[in-house]
């Protein structure tokens, strides 16, 4: 794997840290500005919406900019947003900083996935994408716990300044290590990029992204009350449970990248099916500490095992114009997170208990599996028609060996 992937992984580490660290610092931020914790929660919602909207917007605006330069520009947005958040004198200014930082998120991962795939041989593309996403998964193991600890001891503003420094490291790494890649033939044209969305396989892959990864966040969003009120863990143990979840994410991401290069659709079938079963079983294992801890790791692993194959699936199906589709698929992950968190909250509010979101997650993952099976069936049918058409063409053309030879006369 080329060293340039390290620079992309560093940028991904910083983005992953700033996305999730705010969840552990909401009480401190709320106290600083004198707002309620639910109001401070808009810092999470605003970021997620910024990713969903910013992914296509920034990608479209950057169509005429070489991909390396666009990645550097996006890291610049990320740095400015986090510095603004760290120095914000009022809550509204901090919210604006979060939105500015979020604008880099979807386009960075979308364009970064395209760049990572172009840096390696075709049979290693999913592994390269997984290597970049390793930065995001490691952020949940190292960046978020350390950022939360720093924020609680030295102040949350210090955390965001450190995250901004990570952005500077990512920017310098991209400038130094990522090569100047040739622009796509004919350039990146909006009309060509939009045409990818007429491909039903691209839309199916994005729907799988929303539902499959949404299944993970239906459960994980409410992990704190589930682990404390149901499993019996102390409040202080939740951080370490999230570290276990992050370790599962790292392992699943690498495994998913490795096996997706060998058999992409079978990898998706196995990961989504196992994820649906694991989330359903979590309603039972959540009642014991050991069972809950093991299941949290499995959910992280199986959930992130779907990320490299889903991202590669979009790149493959949008071949020739993958940039916008790749970025929009990153937004689809965040859309799934928001949708699942909302549905999980609905079943809790309906009085079905703290473990009820696990059933929501299982249903979402199972729905993604159904779409994956449908996608695979459509692909096989298309391949069969193409092969049949090729045979008809060969016979009609009278290729030697398909009809009796006619003697030549001199």
Concise synopsis of the structure shown:
By secondary structure, the protein is mainly alpha-helical. It is built from 16 helices and no strands.
Structure commentary:
This protein has helices spanning 4-33, 37-40, 42-61, 67-87, 91-118, 125-153, 156-177, 190-195, 200-220, 223-231, 238-260, 264-285, 289-305, 307-317, 323-349, 356-397. It has 410 residues and is an all-alpha fold. Helix 9 (200-220) runs antiparallel to helix 16 (356-397). The longest helix is centred in the C-terminal third of the chain and has 42 residues, at 356-397. The chain starts with a helix and ends in a 13-residue tail after the last helix. Residues 399-410 have low confidence and may be disordered.
The major β-sheet equals: none
Estimate percent helicity: over 70%
Task: Estimate the global geometry from the Cα principal axes.
Answer: globular
Number of strands: 0
Put simply, the count of helices is: 16
Radius of gyration: 23 Å
Low-confidence stretches: 399-410
Listing every helix as H and every strand as E from the N terminus to the C terminus, the arrangement reads: HHHHHHHHHHHHHHHH
Average pLDDT metric: 85
Structural class: mainly alpha
What is the first-to-last residue Cα distance?
61 Å
Q: What is the strand content?
A: under 5%
């Amino acid at each position: 794997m080329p060293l340039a992937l390290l620079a992309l992984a560093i940028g991904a580490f910083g983005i992953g840290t700033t996305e999730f660290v705010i969840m552990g610092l909401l009480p401190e931020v709320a106290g600083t500005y004198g707002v309620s914790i639910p109001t401070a929660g808009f810092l999470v919602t605003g970021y997620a919406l910024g990713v969903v909207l910013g992914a296509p917007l920034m990608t479209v605006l950057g169509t005429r900019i070489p991909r390396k330069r666009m990645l550097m520009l996006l890291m610049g947005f990320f740095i400015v947003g986090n510095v603004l958040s760290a120095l914000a004198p009022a809550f509204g200014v901090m919210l604006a900083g979060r939105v500015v930082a979020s604008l880099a998120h979807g386009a960075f991962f979308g364009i970064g996935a395209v760049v990572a795939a172009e840096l390696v041989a075709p049979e290693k593309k999913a592994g390269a994408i997984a290597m970049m996403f390793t930065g995001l998964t490691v952020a949940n193991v190292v960046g978020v716990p350390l950022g939360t600890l720093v924020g609680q001891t030295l102040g949350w503003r210090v955390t965001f300044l450190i995250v901004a420094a990570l952005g500077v490291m990512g920017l310098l790494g991209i400038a130094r290590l990522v090569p100047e890649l040739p622009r796509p033939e004919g350039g990146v044209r909006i009309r060509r990029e939009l045409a990818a969305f007429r491909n039903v396989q691209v839309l199916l892959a994005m729907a799988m992204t929303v539902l499959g990864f949404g299944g993970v966040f239906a459960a994980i969003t409410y992990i704190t009350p589930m682990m404390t009120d149901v499993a019996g863990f102390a409040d202080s143990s939740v951080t370490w449970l999230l570290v276990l979840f992050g370790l599962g994410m790292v392992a699943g991401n690498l495994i998913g990248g490795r096996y997706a290069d060998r058999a992409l659709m079978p990898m998706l079938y196995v990961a989504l099916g196992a994820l649906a079963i694991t989330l359903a079983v979590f309603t039972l294992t959540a009642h014991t500490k050991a069972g809950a801890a093991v299941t949290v790791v499995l959910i992280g692993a199986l959930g992130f095992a779907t990320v490299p194959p889903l991202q590669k699936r979009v790149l493959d199906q949008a071949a020739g114009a993958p940039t916008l589709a790749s970025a929009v698929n990153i937004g689809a992950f965040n859309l799934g997170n928001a949708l699942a968190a909302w549905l999980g909250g609905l079943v809790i509010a309906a009085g079905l208990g703290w473990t009820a979101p696990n059933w929501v997650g299982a249903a979402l993952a199972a729905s993604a599996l159904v779409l994956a099976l449908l996608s695979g069936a459509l692909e096989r049918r298309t391949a069969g028609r193409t092969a049949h058409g090729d045979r008809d063409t060969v016979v009609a053309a009278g290729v030697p060996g398909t009809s009796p030879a006619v003697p030549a006369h001199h």
